[in-house]
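As a warm-up, study this chain.
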Amino acid sequence: MKRPKIYLALLVVCGSVLGAALAVVVTGAASLAGTPPNDTTSHTREDGPPPPPFNRWISPVSGKFSVPEWDDRHISAEEKAKNPAIDPRWKPFSECLAARKLETRPDPTRPFVKADLDRLLNGVNTSRPDPGANKRIRQGEAVQGLAGGFLECADEWLSIRIEDFSKFGLTIPPIE
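Now compare it with the structure written out below.
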């Protein structure tokens, strides 16, 4: 007669483990999607709930620094390079990096484009090669070097939601 109680206990334990695993997957998916803050009055959070236990700019799966894709047109990478769709947040983002003496572009007089973002991310990921340590960096946590500058400038500029662009003087440029 004790077996039904054992099965019931086993069922409860399995359910708890599956629930915890689902919570981890949902949290990771939100991070991968680059979920912007819900705050509509400012693009920085100075009050409110504590930061999440992950960083939106670091993949919870790979531990690599990343930025959500801006140019989602269904054309080849070569066509995108010839006629780039430039995220209006990239200019102030690159100025933020330059102000921290973290310029990585070969020609800073040219507009910041996807290739510049890719080069920057490659440098950030090279400077912090430990994915386990990267996954433990929380949103808003102070980090040194290129990675720290990237995180600070990304939080300041790349987290601005499209519907809030006008508050910061940003407009989406037409694609030729």
